[in-house]
Amino acid sequence: MKVHNFSAGPSILPKEVLQESAKSTLQLKNIGMSILEISHRSIDFLNIINEAKTLTKELLDIPNTHEVLFLQGGASLQFYMSALNFCGKHKCSGFLDTGIWAKKAINEAKKVSKTIKIGSSSDKNYSYIPKNISFNEDFDYIHLTSNNTIYGTQIHSFDFINKHIKTEKLICDMSSDIFSRRIDIKNFDLIYAGAQKNLGPAGTTLIIIKKDSLTNKEDRPTYLDYRTHINKESLFNTPPVFSIYVSLLTLRWINKNGGIINIEKKNIEKSNALYNEIDRNSLFFGLVEKDDRSIMNATFDLYDQNLKRKFEELCNKERISGINGHRTTGGFRASMYNALEKESVNKLIEVMQTLENKNKK
Amino acid sequence: MKVHNFSAGPSILPKEVLQESAKSTLQLKNIGMSILEISHRSIDFLNIINEAKTLTKELLDIPNTHEVLFLQGGASLQFYMSALNFCGKHKCSGFLDTGIWAKKAINEAKKVSKTIKIGSSSDKNYSYIPKNISFNEDFDYIHLTSNNTIYGTQIHSFDFINKHIKTEKLICDMSSDIFSRRIDIKNFDLIYAGAQKNLGPAGTTLIIIKKDSLTNKEDRPTYLDYRTHINKESLFNTPPVFSIYVSLLTLRWINKNGGIINIEKKNIEKSNALYNEIDRNSLFFGLVEKDDRSIMNATFDLYDQNLKRKFEELCNKERISGINGHRTTGGFRASMYNALEKESVNKLIEVMQTLENKNKK
């Protein structure tokens, strides 16, 4: 019986990606060796990483001014690394505080420079994206988190930043919504994203960086300097070969399925269907402001907490997995990453309706 | 036809490890999800990482004073991270310069403190381990590279360090020989090792750290502070789930095959066989001093460079893969990690003998 995997990440991957990954774990093409056994300097791996970079550039329409890197350490290492590399003459960086991940980024940046919160939704447990912001400070960069998995909020348009803030550089943690929708890459100097949502398994971190944005000439730890990896084309040291390989397979899958435009369309359809049910169903309510609802992670709860166990039992019966909310928000969270099929969303809606029918007043 | 994989790393893994990895890439046990899709907070993954830690402790006989971590970024990130965490009151660290990897470690440590080379074999292209060392400096720590893949040298006994140097702490990069032989862990404050030789696929870095060795109270970047990972038991952020899982399978394989004592015995047998042939065969010579020969990576060359192509052709015909020497040393390098079977070493010896028979003077 099929599992409907709504896990927030690491999360569901396309079935054909898993099948091809399994095959290559036994033997890559006809070379007599597993993808786990080949040298990262071999022609086989060079072809893999080069195709992964090219496909990333094509799918996201990345201009030539930007480079694509595959590193390690996740967004958690990027919090510090981005600050270290982008701290400039103003010694001041601005952050949009949209929750735990933004706060973690702020804490690491504090070790490098002054930080200012240009906006925060902490007053309402991060249930919205603060947009009325205006500052006269000169910032080295502004840092955003495009999608907030824990709360289920998402920045749908980035226009409000450039209009009201004096900054030359824009950094965005897109860990949980990269490849889920169209993004105008040229507006960003640095985008980073752990692979484990829409790209591949945990173990690699995608970096999209504007090549001429690193003007600072400071001597930095070699691994933590983006210039190292730009110069060595992500092969400064042994890269996470398998994670990059599975990412390539996922990129091929996105490409074959009509690219980002089509993926975005499907994601909007899936999330609309679930949000419509949350709003329609008399037992449930959404946890965040409607304008800022994430197309990736829908958060919701029951009016009557006494129904919680019943709902969970119904979900278990239908093998709906991973919909418990984060411990800081409670309630439920349905993560609908690219590889989650509409059928799984429909199943969840069905269960919500069953609960309603059994508990109508 | 079987490939004899002598690659220096990423390198050969046991066949049954690859088979089980492939199975779990399709579906982990009977949970209906792939190992690539499960949450790192799920009970399934917690069982995996805990068993991997326990088996590491058992196999290497690690005392309770030490902790085992699985991080990311490879030895290259450890070069800086170890210096950052272990720099102490003397602001001076000592390094045994045994080649490129040691020099890279020195370069990163220079960003943190004064560094002194307590010995170097650069005078003879790193073809031996410098052992006559004596210094009166007070060091925060001494840093060693136990096995030097590029040159084929290995530190067989660590006694010479403690006898002649005043240091309270000992750090060792064991990337290419951990799990290949018995090591007295209690003598080390920090051991680090990229997984991609004897442990698993590229993508995770094993850390063995003495818990009370970090006395320095400085505020460090969170990811780069070992205390973060000790406190969070390697789950500070999303770990490289798959790499840790495959490492666990390899640890089970080592355990099933008689543990480190037996693995060491086999490694000595394999390397003895090859070194005996190098010394016996009139066409070949070894590149390093006999006492310092590595049981993992044997480096050798032909007296007559005109035979190089013939030898390579014979190797290709027998599907012997990955024996070209590093570009800085030339010649040949046969890496004989744990998973390489004696049969493959025998095949290489056979080819060396065939070459000799065809080219006897």
Query: What profile does the largest beta sheet of chain A have?
Result: 7 strands, mixed
What's the N-to-C terminus distance of chain A?
33 Å
CATH class of the largest domain in chain A: Alpha Beta
Low-confidence stretches of chain A: none
Helix segment tally of chain A: 10
Strand coverage percent of chain A: 15-25%
Spatial arrangement of strands, main beta sheet of chain A: 2-10-9-8-5-3-4
**Average pLDDT level of chain A:** 95
Number of domains of chain A: 2
Helix vs. strand class of chain A: alpha/beta
- Radius of gyration of chain A over all CA atoms, rounded: 21 Å
Following the backbone from N to C, one meets helices and strands of chain A in this order, namely EHHEHEHEEEEHEEEHHHEEHEEH
Can you give me a brief rundown of this structure?
The structure is a homodimer of 361-residue chains. The first copy, chain A, is an alpha/beta fold. Chain A has 10 helices and 14 strands.
Structure description:
The structure is a homodimer of 361-residue chains. Chain A is of the alpha/beta class and 361 residues long. Chain A has helices at 15-26, 43-59, 74-86, 100-109, 159-164, 226-231, 241-256, 259-280, 308-317, 342-358; strands spanning 4-5, 66-71, 92-97, 114-120, 141-145, 147-148, 153-154, 170-173, 190-194, 205-210, 284-286, 297-302, 320-321, 332-335. Chain A has two domains: 15-256, Type I PLP-dependent aspartate aminotransferase-like (Major domain) (Aspartate Aminotransferase, domain 2); 259-358, Aspartate Aminotransferase, domain 1, CATH 3.90.1150. Chain A is built from ten helices and 14 strands. In chain A, the strands form four sheets. A seven-stranded mixed sheet of chain A has the order 2-10-9-8-5-3-4, sandwiched between helices. A three-stranded antiparallel sheet of chain A has the order 11-12-14, covered by helices on one side. Chain A has a two-stranded parallel ribbon with strand order 1-13. The radius of gyration of chain A is 21 Å and the shape is globular. At the A-B interface, α1, α3, α4 and α7 of A face α1, α3, α4 and α7 of B.
